[in-house]
Amino acid sequence: MPKITIWYDRTVVIVGFSFLFGLFGWLMHATFESFFLPTKTFQQLLLTDVSSHDIIIRLIVSGCFFIAGTLLIKALIHRRYTEENLKESYETLRRTNTLLEEKIVHNVAELETLVKQKNDLVASLSHDLKTPLTPLMGVLPMIIREEKNSKLKELLEMSLRNVHYLRDLVSRTIDLALLDSATIGMSPENICVSTELEAVLENRSYSLTNHHLYVNNKIDDHLMVHADRLKLREVFQNLLMNSIKFSQASGGIITLQAVPENDHVKIWITDTGIGMTEEQLHTAFHELFKADPARNDHASTGLGLAICKRIIEKHGGKIWLESPGPGKGTTVFFTLPASTT
Fold it and tell me: How far is CA 38 from its chain centroid?
């Protein structure tokens, strides 16, 4: 019903104004003739003394004015109608945006609260879990040394390995929770990539020798990055340990390379280990990911790559994996800001 009323009102206005424009055309024609026929009065020229030929001309002129008036008034009304619709749409959009902004602010506040609660819970649980582990780590080695029963000694050694695994899991969980927090700070400085890498390689020399792995370090001694020294060492250590753990039984090669790339340095570590499937490449940075979940590997918590990803992203870099396939090795790439000097 409202649409019909609007249409009716607009039609009446258009016809009315167009009729007035038509009369105006008739009047203008009579006025124009009065300049050339002074012997006749304006009334005669307008109504009484009008020839049939003149009437036809005036009707044509009036019709032209009528059509022009119709088009003009219709355009004006349509423009007004469009402006009102746009104003109504703008107001609706403004209200919607306001509601969305309020909802986003509310959701962000809720998310920040949940993250804080998660971090507090992780810290609390980590402390509660670490407390009973500390005496076990000190007492179990003493018991193992004194124990004569080989079977019981084997069980105690297995228990000690599990205690160490649980301690590492708790420590890495804390690290991951802290890296998720916006309050954690970094202490970046200009450091030599090769120097930090050599320090990690020296600490892991026994594992490399024990696994018959050869390290080919191709990184330039003068290549510098702007990063947190301790966090960078943690990244190198995690990635190097992954290459060692998942190396082939017969040994292999670990190749280290780096090149400047615009205002960043791209670093990559390639091994000749067990490789990865396409699915593993997409899930490798998930928390508690393990390349071989069937292995009962107490040396791996499955958090190493997730921690590396957080550290690299905190520095404004990115990290990704590539592998030709199972049995063909894996390459880990990551970028860090280049030295500021």
Answer: 85
Q: Return the DSSP state at 338.
A: B
pTM above 0.90, yes or no: no
Helix (H, G, I), strand (E, B) or coil at 273: coil
CA distance 167 to 173: 10
- Give the chain's mean pLDDT: 78
Residue bearing tokens 């109608």: 81
Q: Are 137 and 219 members of one domain?
A: no
258 and 176 housed in the same domain: no
Tracing tokens 């119709």 back to the chain, one arrives at 70
| CATH number of 330's domain | 3.30.565.10
- Residue keyed to tokens 């804390």: 174
CA distances from 150 to 34, 137, 143 (A): 134, 20, 12
The predicted pLDDT at position 4 comes to 42
Q: Name residue, tokens 């005496």.
A: 135
DSSP β-ladder status, 224-228 and 188-192: antiparallel
Structural domain range at position 218: 188-337
The radius of gyration of the chain's CA atoms, rounded to the nearest angstrom, is: 42
